[in-house]
Amino acid sequence: MSEVTWQRLTLAGLVALAVCWLAGRLLDSSGTTPPHVPWSAWAFSFIAGGCALGFAWQVKRFLQGKRPDLSPLRAARTAMFAQACAYVGAVMAGAYGGYALALVDSWSHGPRREVIISALIAAGSSLVLMVAGMIAERWCRYDDDDDSAEPSPA
User: 67 pLDDT exceeds 90?
Assistant: First the structure.
């Protein structure tokens, strides 16, 4: 399993930003009302990020030898969940950021300003999800300092 890098996350976020900016501009130029970003978008980000950190904390304790009853398969699944959170957070942050950028020229219009603000809040919470995924993935790493042939538990 390869680790998540900032370069990959940045690329995924920028691609999502460009696609959603273009879609938002097309939506805005067609004269349709832009849809609101639901509050569940930022709530999902905080809940998923908290779960990733909670699961990864258990794996960290397992790797320190303080939780020997944890299954190595569960540790591997937690690492994959942490990576998924990082990628989803980056893509969602880019998507909501692009949506907000597409509508920023109509900031003076009250209802559109609310859509922009809700998109920016969702983008910020998605960044929190991305950072939580990166931290959780780091907690799940097994540093094999010795040159033994034992397989790593996670």
Answer: no
Rounded Cα gap, residues 37 and 116, in angstroms:
9
Mean pLDDT over 56-82 rounds to: 92
DSSP state string for the chain: -PPP-HHHHHHHHHHHHHHHHHHHHHHHHTTPPPPPPPHHHHHHHHHHHHHHHHHHHHHHHHHTTS-TTS-HHHHHHHHHHHHHHHHHHHHHHHHHHHHHHHHGGGTTSHHHHHHHHHHHHHHHHHHHHHHHHHHHHHHT-----S---PPP--
Residue 85 tokens read as: 């959170």
> What pLDDT shows up at residue 151?
54
**What's the pLDDT at 99?**
95
Question: In this structure, are residues 100 and 23 in contact, taking their beta carbons and an 8 Å threshold?
Answer: no
What is the spatial distance between Cα 36 and Cα 33, in angstroms, rounded to a whole number? Answer: 9
The CA distance from 75 to 60, in Å, is 9
pLDDT, tens digit (0-9, with 9 covering 90-100), for 77-105: 999 999 999 999 999 999 999 999 999 98
